[in-house]
Structure formats: structure tokens, C-alpha cells
Amino acid sequence: MKPVIGLAVGRGTGSEVAAVFERVLSALARVHATDIAIERSPRTYHSYVSLKSAGGIDRVRELTREDAEHYEEFCRTLARRGTTAVFRTAINAQSLYLVRQRLRAVKVDPITDGDTSLLLVRDEAQGFYTGENQHSPGLVTRTMAFSEEITDEVIAFALRRARQEWPREGIGQVVMAYKFHLLDGALDEWVSRARVRHGVDIALFQPDTVNRNLIAFGPRPRTVVIAGNEWADIMHVVLLDRFGSERQENRCTENVHLHPDVAGLVEYQTVHGSADDIEGKDTVNPLATVRAAAAIAERHAGCAGAMAATERAIRLTTERGVLTPDLGGGHSTTAVVDALLGVLERCDEAAAEPYRERPAEGAGASLVAGS
Asked: What's phi and psi for 301, nearest 5 deg?
């Protein structure tokens, strides 16, 4: 049966990013002599910039709800049909986090460079980033929640994913970064029970303590950081730069949904945002999108070696100086993709072997990783 991949497109540079994704996925399918179908959401979702131009606060709230409801149903429909992956360009965060709350999402990013090995698992299902707003003149009241059930689901997922990431060496340490001092001691009790339940030592710290320890000592080998978005959204880019030698513009990540209605559906996204300021200029950095297409092709469409071959193509293209302006180059998005695909379509699997990675959760094979 032909694999089907979902595609959800937002405003800003979303249409340009989506075009890169479709082009690269098609090229990878051609190289692997397979056929991949794309099911595109019929709605173009708003970015924050496009929402602000749509009208006042009431109109923004209405469109935010509409986008969230539509994207949630799109994901549920994909999951019911057996689709295991969806690529989404950046959309307005408020709509996105309503969906993440309802579908109990976690973001996963393994950050590695040399001896450093850190697995960041972002709790997107609860906390300040989720919740509802109530408005009165000159006042916004935001109501959100934490729950022991969701906290334990996130911990259980993080431990499972870490064991898949390091099947032989095992987990080095588990650290949780949350503002637990604001929760009357409830989170401490939940984590204490989780330690016993999962048989794992879990260190719960304030975010500033995690920062201090990382600055002073760096992460221990095979560190799992489970974090609320209040810290992780800000620190993700810093961790990539400091411990992964990577920039957010080049990076894609996975969002795994823990709600049973959509279990098995993995959402891939670029780490960079909608970049409305460069919309239509053909200068958006395509590397994160290219990597997302390769990960989906390999993990969800049977294109063995696609990620390794793509990394080789990126390396060779970068060494030749074919880069978009944000990376110091002078090439357009189209020119960079042209160069990458020129290398990729001549690359055989053996040449890419040193860059091979394992498949990720939701792919129906052994599991590992991929605002």
C-alpha cells in the first residue's frame, strides 16, 4: 500500500517551505523507486503576523479557535486512516498549543556533538503555554493546569524513548526542569511517586539550577532533560548551539502525541518559525525542511538510507558554499535545493553509510529520535 504523509501549511513562508518538502520527498521517493502520497490540509493556518492583520482581539480569538479545531481534526483524521507522519510548517503558537494540549504532545530532540549526548523532551501538554484566556477591559486572565496523569505520561515516554536512544549504554541521568516552587509541592509528590513507579532516579530542579549546572559542568553522558515549555522553549535554541553545534534554522524536530486517539502519529516541524518578514523572497533556509523530508521518507515511507544520503548531500553542498543568506551565503532557497538534489540523486547508499541513523517512534520499527 502506498504510504500517505500529511502536510499542514501555515502563512508566512509556509507555502515556500511546503514546496521544498514536497520536492525533496518526491526526489527521495524517486531515488528509492517508490511512491509516496501527500494528503494536504485544505486550510492554510494563520501565523501570528497574519492574525494581527485580520482584525481586533475578538477576531484573533475566533480565528485562533478555528485554526486549532481544524488542525486537531486533521490530525485525528490522519491517525484514523493509519497515517503515521505529518509535516507542519510554522503556525500561530496559540492555536498550536491548544492542539498540543488536547492531543497531549511532547517534543523530542536528541542533541549530540562528540561526547555530548542529551535527549530533550519538552512537555507541551500542560502548563502556561496551554490553557484558555478570559478577557475583560485592560485585563487578560489565563487559566492553565498541571496534572499528575499527564506528568507521568510524559515521564514514561521520556524513559522509553531514552532507552531506545541508548539501548546498550543505558540512561545516564534524568533531570526535570519545572517551576515547581509555584505548585504548592504537588509536582514534588508526583515525581516522588514516579521515581518509585518507574524505578528510576529523577532529579527535579528549578530551571535556573539546571542552567547553572549545564553552564558549570555540561550534561553528563546520556542525560535526559524533561522540561516544561516555560523553560524548554527558550533554552532549546541555546542547547542546540552550546551542546549540539547546530543552529535552529537547520534543525527539524518531532512532536509525538500521547493521546490514544492519535497514538502513532508523529508530527515533524522545522525549529525555525514562520519568518513572515522574508515571505516571497526565496531566501528561507531549506535545510530543516530537507532533513524533515528525509526523516519522514526513511521512518515512515520505507526509504532506507534516506537520512544518511541527505546528510551527505547537505555536507557536500555546504562545503561548496551553496548557502542561504542566514548562513552567510548568497544563494536562494531554490538554488540550495537544486544543489542538494543534484548531489542526492547521484548518491548511493554505501557512500552515505557513515551517516546512518535509526528509525524513530511511530515508524513501526525500533524507536529513536529525530517551536
From this structure: -135, 15
> Would you tell me which CATH number, out of the four given (1.10.3720.10, 3.40.50.300, 3.40.718.10, 3.40.50.720), belongs to the domain 105-257?
3.40.718.10
Q: Where are the domains of the chain?
A: 1-104+259-371, 105-257
3-class DSSP state of 331? coil
Is the separation of the CB atoms in 6 and 85 below 8 Å? yes
Q: For residue 354, give the DSSP letter.
A: G
Q: Which helix (H) or strand (E) holds 59?
A: helix 57-80
Cβ burial of 280 (10 Å; 0-12, 13-18, 19+) is exposed
What is the pTM for the complete model shown?
0.89
Chain segment 221-249, per-residue pLDDT in tens: 999 999 999 999 999 989 988 888 777 78
What 8-state DSSP symbol labels residue 303? -
DSSP string across 194-263: HHHHHT--EEEE-HHHHHHHHHHH-PPTTEEEEEEHHHHHHHHHHHHHHHS---GGG-EEEEEE-SGGGT
C-alpha–C-alpha distance, residues 103 and 98, integer Å: 9
How far, in Å, are 53, 122, 210, 228 from residue 235 at the CA level?
Answer: 30, 11, 11, 11
Residue bearing cell 486533521: 74
CB-count burial class (<10 Å; 0-12, 13-18, 19+) for 82: exposed
Q: Residue 145 has what DSSP assignment? A: -
The amino acid at 145: A
Average pLDDT score over residue span 73-94: 96
Alpha-carbon separation of residue 150 from 123, 260, 320 (angstroms): 9, 13, 47
- CB neighbours of residue 288 within 10 Å: 23
Q: From the CA atom positions of the chain, what is the Rg in Å?
A: 20
**Rounded Cα gap, residues 208 and 235, in angstroms:** 11
